[in-house]
């Protein structure tokens, strides 16, 4: 039996192979600009006829973008756990490429997923209390799917529900805007959380929370292949963890090329500038919900979303050639910050 992930991966892999061989049977005019198409898992985004990413409506307990193909045709997020390949780290199966998660929203767990708790020694009895606290970010509808010469847009509405029983605690709307040029591929992310219930929604102060990417193993500092982290304040490598910054760039080798990922937060985003839960093994998270969990000397920063209130996160992620200087990330951030 094929899972949604395996079907999605087969579809995307075939598309990548076809593009690499020049076997896509479309005219030059059809290849120009962006296109979107429905897939078994969600929506595939292409640029000039070549794969950019796939929006997967549900991977375990959350929607994800996977994979992300960079400006040179190389995948720039980790394949595991959706696909297993030799040489990749096989840790933290809940780190699913490009996603939002939070370890405690009204006591429900949206960071980890069922695969996080499963193992050789797990039993129905040991799993039961964990599944009772598990949450699911459930796809409700696509509000917009569009593409033209300059960009593609996918807008979605999701419900946050309990894994067992389906009790709804809140909802969000997400808007992804995809752009590309000769040296980079860009994803703009806007997430609006809505409390449409009659009860308060509490985002606990958690270390494991926020909008995340899991980068290729070869880029990780721990791989010792030339990976590097630097933020807008000039802080580098492991010292960037939990520090507030406007942007962070993580760059390193990917299949024989030096590529990077710049993760930027817009000034209008909740609690800007955010602390960064960026790890030497390749996790890359903007965590606006962490305070005491990141530094015991800081106050608890749990946030209550009252009935009818909203909360907005806004980011730009640039998948680029070279390091942060080659890609001129500081100037790119200034342009982003001025956008309305």
Protein traits:
eight-stranded antiparallel β-sheet, Beta-galactosidase, Chain A, domain 5, 340 residues, mainly beta, single chain, four-stranded antiparallel β-sheet, 39% strand
Structure description:
The chain is mainly beta and 340 residues long. The protein has a single domain (78-338), classed as Beta-galactosidase, Chain A, domain 5 (Distorted Sandwich), CATH 2.70.98. 13% of the residues lie in helices and 39% in strands. The chain contains five helices and 18 strands. An eight-stranded antiparallel sheet has the order 6-7-8-9-18-14-13-12, with helices on one face. The longest helix has 17 residues, at 4-20. It is globular, with a radius of gyration of 19 Å. The N and C termini lie far apart (47 Å). Mean pLDDT is 93; it is low at 17-29.
